[in-house]
Amino acid sequence: MRFTFLCLLFITNALLTNGQSSSTRDVTLERQLRAALTGFRGEAGIYVHNLRTGKTVAINADTLFPTASTIKIPIQCGLFDKIHKGELKYGNPIVYKDSLHYDDGIVGSLKDGAKIPLNEVVMLMETVSDNTGSLWCQALAGGGSTINAWLDANGFHQTRVNSRTPGREAHRTRYGWGQTTPREMADLMTYIRQGRAVSPDASEEMYRNLGRQFWDNDGLSQIPPEIKTACKNGAVNQSRSEVVFVHAPHGEYVYCIMTKNQKDETWERTNEGFVLLRTVSAILWHHFEPKSTWKPAPGYEKWW
User: Fold this and answer.
1) Domain boundaries 23-290, corresponding CATH code
2) How far, in whole angstroms, is CA 248 from its chain's centroid?
3) Which residues lie below 8 Å from residue 118, measured CB to CB, with a gap of 6+?
4) Which of 106, 259, 260, 263 has its CA 20 to 30 A from that of 273?
5) How far apart are CA 41 and CA 267, in angstroms?
6) pLDDT-derived band of residue 12, with 50, 70 and 90 as boundaries?
7) What is one Gene Ontology biological process annotated in the Swiss-Prot or TrEMBL record (predicted)?
8) Residue 299's Cα: distance from chain center in Å?
9) What is the mean pLDDT of the chain?
């Protein structure tokens, strides 16, 4: 009986801590983040890792969520794997065809037959999240199956490209373009930052692309503009997501927040998902930089 009780106690504790050991779990930060999730009409997952202290927070961190446009990080990895193998040239021009058109973004507005350097298409994929350009990059990388094989080989077993990937139609219906967990997407960002994705030089270029984020009105708006960050965000009607690597003065940290099944499907700045992205980012910044008195300038939000 005593043995059974101890086993149950161990299992219960593991569930409550999301598999985190007490030595690495940031209890104070977790308490603040759980409070921020109170009243949110939908499901949310958060993973935070302070690379200096090793402390983490995991709230639904291993639950699958739609990637929305954060899938463009794995697509970039798959593409750079092809470049590293010599199958593509990063700076070479490629020819746009009307058959590639998905929407009227920058790439989708090109004329049939127009030439554009591959590196510019990659930049547009990561910086402004150009969808036509991203699907083009996915195809150039060998398609979703090839990218998924790279992810699996590198230890990312939950992150997958679903769209235009044979055999993943049911997953696409449920999750959209791609699926992942907050922990894996944050770990993938760290993997790139540490020079472990494809090769050190490929990782460096990928990280530079991720450091040129046009959509800076969500989590990035809560971090001082002089602080270096790398970021990718994504949004569809019932989901908002963001993964951010922050070069904070007192230690780098990475976090990923994802939502799904949101009741609020509006596209205004007041959308509950967008508000949550900003709230989480602000909590993290002031937790890791407690002496910082910085806050967004009054009226800053009017620009959005």
Assistant:
1) 3.40.710.10
2) 18
3) 88, 89, 90, 91, 92, 93, 94, 140
4) 106
5) 15
6) very low
7) response to antibiotic
8) 28
9) 94
| Cα 15 from Cα 37, distance rounded (Å) | 18
pLDDT of 23 reads 73
- Asked if residue 9 has pLDDT above 50, the reply is no
Question: Which pLDDT belongs to residue 302?
Answer: 84
Query: Which residue reads 């993997």 in tokens?
Result: 191
Q: How far is CA 76 from the centre of its chain?
A: 12
Interatomic CA distance for residues 258 and 30, integer angstroms: 16
Tell me, rounded to whole angstroms, the distance of Cα 256 from its chain centroid: 6
| Residue spans of beta strands (DSSP E) within 252-304 | 253-260
Neighbours of 253 (CB within 10 A): 25
- 3-state class (DSSP) for residue 94: strand
- Averaged over 215-240, what is the pLDDT? 98
Mean pLDDT of 174-186: 98
Q: Where are the domains of the chain?
A: 23-290
- 15 band by pLDDT with thresholds 50, 70 and 90: very low
Cα–Cα dist 184/242, whole Å: 13
DSSP state of 25: B
Tell me: pLDDT of 1 over 90. no
Cα dihedral sign, 259-263-265-269: negative
Q: Is the separation of the CB atoms in 275 and 268 below 8 Å?
A: no
Q: What 3-state class would DSSP assign to 162?
A: coil
Please say whether the beta carbons of 183 and 20 come within 8 A: no
Please name which of 49, 36, 26, 112 lies closest in space to residue 253, comparing C-alpha atoms: 49
What's residue 301's pLDDT?
Answer: 85
Mean pLDDT of 68-85: 98
- Specify the amino acid at residue 90: Y
